[in-house]
Amino acid sequence: MKNFMIIAISFLILFSLFQVISGMLLTLMYTPNITEAWNVSANLSQEVIIESSNSHFILTLFLAFLSAVIAYFILKKITKYSNSSK
Length: 86
Known about the structure:
Layout: H1 2-29, H2 34-41, H3 54-85
Helix pairs in contact: 1-3
């Protein structure tokens, strides 16, 4: 049960950290084009259309996998450290 708690907590912390870092990077790299946005806004319809992109899902899945792998290695390091101290 202890191993499960270590993996779960490590995974949640790492996954949250990766999500925040990726959001910060996307925000830093975004460059708005005010002139083009103003020109396009005159031709927009009054309806709202919500679309989804699968590329965000793949990035989220990759970050989850990376977090799980790192959480696994954290568990291995903690169990190795606790076994060597006994």
